[in-house]
Amino acid sequence: MGGTVKEKILTLPTPYGGNLELHKNTWGKSGEPLSIVSGLQGDHLNGLFLNSHLTQFLDSIVEGLDPHYTLTGQVQTFPVVNVNAVQSGTRLWPLDGMDMDLAFPGNPEGETAEAIASAILQHTKDSFWGIILTSAPPHYEDAPHIQTHKPDSREKKMCRDLQIETARRQKDSPTQKVNLFHHWQEQEISSVMVSAGSPRTINPQQCEVLFQGILNFMKAEGILKDHRNKKPDNKIKTRIYDPDEEVLVRTSAAGMLLKEVKVGNFLKKGQKIGEVRDIYSGKRLEELAAPEDGLLITLRQYPIVYEKEPIAILLSGKDRWQKIGHVFQSIVKR
Which of 71, 177, 267, 275 could be joined to 271 by an S-S link, Cβ 3.0–4.6 Å? Predict the structure, then answer.
C-alpha cells in the first residue's frame, strides 16, 4: 500500500502575478483508480468541504491512525479545479467568465480554463470510476442525491453501491458534450455526479450523507477494506427517477418567496410549500402547494422571484405507475 502523494499537475501564470497551481492527491497502490473531482465551479463549496473530509480520512488510513480500514485500491482526488474562481468567491473566474465545466476536452495551449480542463482529463483518463462533487444551480438547494444521464449496468451498480436513496437521470443537453462527465463516459469510465446543498454555503450534514455514500461505494468495490466485520444495517435501495417523473412547481406572481418546507422532505399532494408576498405591501399574492405526492429534491433559496419562476422540483413515481397501468390495461384488452 502506497502513502499519500500530493502532485502538482499544472502551473500557469496569472495576470495578477504569481502562478496558478493545480494539484491532485493520490492514495494507494497503482492501478485503475477512483477519481473524485470537486470545485469545477468556484461557489460549490460543499464539494470542496467533502473532498477535504475524504483527504483527512484517507490520510489517517495510510498513516496507520485508523485501525478499522485498509486501503486496497487507488483513489485520486482533485480538490479545487477552478482555483481562480474559488479564490475570487464566485462561480466563474471574473477575468474570463468561462464555465469550467463547459471547457472540456480543453486545450493544453488554450486559455486558462481550457488548459485546466485538458490537465484534468489527462490525469483521469485511466480511471475505472469517476465521481464529480457538485451542488444545486445558483439560488437553489439540492437534497443529497446522485445524478446520471443514461446509466448502463455498471453505473446502476455504482448507484446501488453508494446507497444514497435518490438518483436522477438528467435530460440530454446541448452543452453536455463539453463537460467532464460526458468525456468520462465517452472513455467508458463508470461515473456519476453527487449533488447536495446550495452554492456559496457549506452544509456538513448534507456532506456527511455523501461521505458515507462514497465510503459505501469504496467498500463495495474493494477499494477499501473494513476490518470490523460489522454486518451492514438495512441496505438503502437507490431509486432512479426519470426526467418525466420530475414535477416542477412555478410561481404565478412576482414577489418575495417565504418557504415552509425543507429539501429532502416528502410532500403530500396539497401540502403548502410556501407563499409569495408583494415586496412593497407585504400582501399575500399566492400560496404554493405540492401538485402531487413527491420527494422535494430541489428548492429555491433566494427569496426574490419573478412570474413563472421555478421554485421547487418534486420527484414522483406517478408517471411511471401510470405507464405500467396503461401497458397492463392494453394487455388485458387483448
Answer: 267
